[in-house]
Amino acid sequence: MAATEFEALPALEGAEPRLGTLVMKFGGTSVADPAKIKDVARRIVDARAQGNRVVAVLSAMGDSTDDLVRLAYEVSPQPKPRELDMLISVGERISCALAAMAIHDLGAEAISLTGSQAGIVTDTVHGHAKIVDVRARRIHEALDQDRIVLVAGFQGVSTDYDITTLGRGGSDTTAVALAAALGAGVCEIYTDVDGVYTADPRLVPEARKLHAVSYEEMLELAASGAKVLQVRSVEVARSHSVKLHVRSTFSAADGTWIREEDERMLEKALISGVTHTREEMLYRVDGTTPARLFAVLANAGVNVDTIVRTGPEILFSAPAEDRDAAGDALDGLGVEWSARDDLGTVSVIGAGMKSHPGVAAKAFEALAAAGIEPDLVTTSPIKISCHVRSEEVERAVAELHRAFELDAPEAERQHG
Ligand code: ADP
Ligand code: ASP
Ligand code: MG
Fold first, then answer.
1. 225 lines ligand 2 (CB under 6 A)
2. Which residue's CA is the nearest one to ligand 2's atom 5?
3. Nearest CA to 340 among 353, 328, 350, 326?
4. 264-297 as b/e, with b when 16 or more CB fall inside 10 Å?
5. Which DSSP category does 210 fall into?
6. Which DSSP state fits 15?
7. Where does the pLDDT of residue 352 fall: very low under 50, low under 70, confident under 90, or very high at 90 and above?
8. Shortest CA distance to 216 belongs to which of 245, 188, 238, 243?
9. What residues does ligand 1 touch, defined as CB less than 6 Å away?
């Protein structure tokens, strides 16, 4: 796989801000069946009727991306990345074409575009491509003709003219990059929960919906397991100052705002949330240097997370789905290595940590009181992350959520 040779962020020079442009992104559950697609079409048409120039980015229906991936592996044990992208990019195209039909039936004009037609240009890394440019001329033309524009999320065309995909959850990034390129001040992310919560609401019923979260906190939340936004979309939003509004497709309620930090976010609660991952691989490697090791892993497309070096030994963690790539890369290096697959992570995130000592002590105390002993601990200025045994993850999340009183109304950071 070729590494990116391009500026890592979309080049958006010359993007002309147009007032009244609204980018709305709808996730897979929101367009899971024909009735839901019609509801989404109605919502898009209503936004147009309020005077907005509307660009809607859609995900593939329900679990159809998973189905396509499964299909590929039923045909071939190691599908070629180029062909896999050709296949799995199809799902979003289906949603957009269907939504355009539903919009026509409501009496409005709409045009569906693939990522490539919409001018989403990426690097050449299949499966994890990065957007390097947005050539929005065609979208502007369609908007100028008073049309609603539907863009297939999660995909683009590479500088080598191949179809690429942006990594799982990538429609979020399509939407944010378009919002930046079109000069839309806000990107609305419509999903199956009504905002970003203090923990995954499916795991912690007492979790509270956050009113506002800073870009930095959202980056850490997304990177440590809150899958409600793709990490890359938050990076793009931060660098281009696009405000995100994460909200429910199924209600009109206000959701969560992701934006610049402001002290009102911190005056009520130091911690914004607790996140988790259930499966993480932890590798132990001996007999190489970090420079050699991480160069090889990067080349193999392994998404290395935590790195710890103690003496000659190097410990690092990586997502379970990169297991084969990591194993092959380590075998190729000819080093001694072993891996554990019985761990997950639990993390506490909050910008207030920067100025308030004692957060780590409180987290370890809460875990110890529950008989949970982390195997590995890593920190950033606004995150404490613990590797614990997979079967302890749920309990660890609940204990930390309680210890930091995230079930209290103050955790929502509601302000005027
Ligand atoms: P979409 O298909 O709309 O992109 P995703 O499934 O990617 O939606 O993301 C939404 C899901 O993220 C929710 O259903 C929820 O279970 C999960 N999630 C995990 N952590 C959080 C959190 N802290 N706040 C909100 N949702 C979360
Ligand atoms: N359909 C893609 C996925 O399931 C992209 C997305 O939904 O954002 O990962
Ligand atoms: Mg998603």
1. no
2. 169
3. 326
4. ebbebbbbbbbbbbeebbbbebeebeeeebbebb
5. -
6. P
7. confident
8. 238
9. 27-30, 59, 169, 191-193, 196-197, 199-202, 226-228, 273
pLDDT tens, position by position, 180-212 = 999 997 999 999 999 999 999 999 999 999 999
For 94-115, b/e burial (b = at least 16 CB within 10 A) is: bbbebbbebbeebebebbbbbb
The amino acid at residue 290 is P
205: left (phi over 0), alpha (psi -120 to 50) or beta: alpha
pLDDT band at 306 (very low <50, low <70, confident <90, very high): confident
Is residue 29 in contact with ligand 2, taking CB distance under 6 Å? no
Angle at 379 between CA 3 and CA 333, to 5 degrees: 40
Write out pLDDT tens, residues 220-259. Answer: 999 999 999 999 999 999 999 999 999 999 999 999 999 9
Cα 86 to ligand 3 centroid, rounded to whole Å: 20
Phi, psi of 313 (to 5 degrees): -90, 140
Which residue lies with its CA nearest to atom 1 of ligand 1? 27
Rounded to whole angstroms, the Cα distance separating 209 from 194 reads 8
Q: Indicate whether residue 30 lines ligand 2 (CB < 6 A).
A: no
